[in-house]
Amino acid sequence: GRSKLPNVGTTIFTTVGILAKQHRAIDLSQGFPNFEADPRLFELVNKVMHEGYNQYAPMQGDYSLRETIANKIEKLHGTVYHPEMEITVTVGATQAIFTAIAAFISPGDEVIILKPAYDCYEPAIELNGGIPVPIQMGLNDYAIDWDALKNAITPKTKMLVLNTPHNPSGKVFSKNELQKLETILEPTDIIVVSDEVYEHIVFDENEHISLSQIEGLANRSFICASFGKTFHVTGWKVGYCAAPSELMKEFRKVHQFAVFCVDHPTQKAMNTYLQDESLYLGLKSFYQKKRDFFLNALNSSRFTYSPCEGTYFQLLNYSQITNENDEAFARRLIIEFGIACIPISSFNLNRRQDGVLRFCFAKKNETLEKAAEILCGL
Ligand code: PMP
Ligand code: GLN
Asked: Aminotransferase class I/classII large domain: which residues (predicted)?
């Protein structure tokens, strides 16, 4: 046939979202907040629109925003990216990831992916003729099998995609793990796409280590981030990526023809908003309270879990409740019990992983409370 992606259907987030609406279910499926963002941010967008920032932004992104991003990265991670050559503003992290893949992957190139994985990586690889090479993370602890990773590297391996904090498991990669990766990649020229959209959402004693902090990874990585996650505006679709200039040069060759530039007023507003670092540094404690609230409310349920280390997703194991497969159970939860979540085999194309569902806790406490009440009754 003519399809370039014959095995791809409609994403799980769209199909579950529609089913949840049809059945008026409490929706803890797709990752987005159901509370409003800071009204000051809306005022900032309104203000810059009236100031006339309504035409094309620079192709690479508003320069002052790129400077602010560079300062933020340097302050948090000690790494210097030059705003002119090494930072590009993108239509969310999705476009950053897609563009990095499109810029470097040619037919036959292999790309290593750690599974379960967020769903946008593999189609982007396949569209460019690349071959996704899945490495399964540990089934309960999401540990990395370093030997498997090492053995997966061939002369055709062009890229590796890493996501920390990790969606859907909530795993946060430690410095030690990233240094292991650095050592394994050292003899290769594999490029890394580092999906760090949940960089500010980490809990307990966990710390987000950006790949930009690890020298042997920073010099081969695209660091992809999203303001949607950080400022509770997933619908605005603004993000950015940072990479050494020789990688960014190729990235921009694709970016300029795929989108040219990103929404101008939003970029201007984000630049002002980002000046107050407490707005993103406070995100951890904000979401830790939500995670703890949700988990406390699940105390009397039959679900089992380890509290997530980061992201706004919590995996719940339901094997004490039913032995149905996760897709069937997730469907029944919507239709019969009025609660929506994501079955995690959707992140696993290559194998089923029954018994585990993903719940988004970026929701009002009243929503989490109602959800927990239903879940405790199962
Ligand atoms: N990567 C991961 C791991 C995500 O969970 C998401 C979105 N929720 C994205 C990328 C996409 O981010 P954006 O909405 O900024 O495109
Ligand atoms: N990243 C969000 C999630 O994991 C979904 C974004 C999307 O729908 N593509 O729920």
From this structure: 26-374
Whole-prediction pTM: 0.97
The list of the chain residues with pLDDT below 70 reads: 349-353
DSSP bridge pairs for 115: 136
Give yes or no: residues 197 and 235 share one domain: yes
**Ligand 1 center from residue 210 Cα (angstroms):** 16
Asked whether residue 204 falls in the same domain as residue 340, the answer is no
Looking at residue 290, which CATH number applies to its domain?
3.90.1150.10
What number does the ligand 1 atom closest to the CA of 91 have? 16
Domain that holds residue 149: 54-278
End residue of a domain, out of 248, 278, 308: 278
**Ligand at shortest distance from the CA of 15:** 2
Give the distance (Å) from ligand 2 centre to CA of residue 3. Answer: 24
pLDDT of residue 87: 98
Q: 120 CA to middle of ligand 1, Å?
A: 9
Are residues 233 and 363 both part of a single domain?
no
Give yes or no: residues 260 and 318 share one domain: no
Alpha carbon of 32 to ligand 1 centroid (Å): 10
Question: What is d(CA 122, CA 244) in angstroms, rounded to the nearest whole number?
Answer: 24
Give the whole-angstrom CA distance, residue 271 versus residue 41: 10
- Residues 128 and 105: beta-carbon distance below 8 Å: yes
Dig out the tokens for 54 from the structure. Answer: 């309504």
Residues constituting the chain: 378
Q: Check whether the bond before 168 is cis (ω within 30° of 0).
A: yes
Residue-level pLDDT at 191 = 99
Pocket of ligand 2 (CB under 6 A): 13, 30-31, 167
Which conformational region is residue 105 in: left (phi greater than 0), alpha (psi within -120 to 50 degrees), or beta? beta
CATH code for the domain of 274: 3.40.640.10
Q: Counting atoms of ligand 1 from 1, which one is nearest the CA of 228?
A: 15
